[in-house]
Amino acid sequence: MSTDHRRLERSLDRLQSRLPDWIARPVGGLRKPDARWIRIPVGILFILGGFLGFLPILGFWMVPLGLLLLALDVPFLRRPTAGFMIRAERRWSEWRRKRRQDPPAR
Description:
Blueprint: H1 3-18, H2 21-31, H3 36-50, H4 62-71, H5 75-101
Helix pairs in contact: 1-5, 3-4, 4-5
């Protein structure tokens, strides 16, 4: 297993541990190696659906989710996806920390 793959797996482990149980279970199932046959088509459909983001329900949120699914199986997507997840996790933590420290405006 490459370093990029391990980084991506660790990031996904942290994300999955924070999800509610009803969604963490299906995410864990999608991460299994034998779910590759469903991850790739769903990832491609998410990316294509993300380009139709101006329509209701479909949205731009689908592009990163599709790339994340594809990164599990496509090696050249692992490094940028893992880096993005790490940066996003840091920014989210900083934002939450700041929000807890700042008193609410009145």
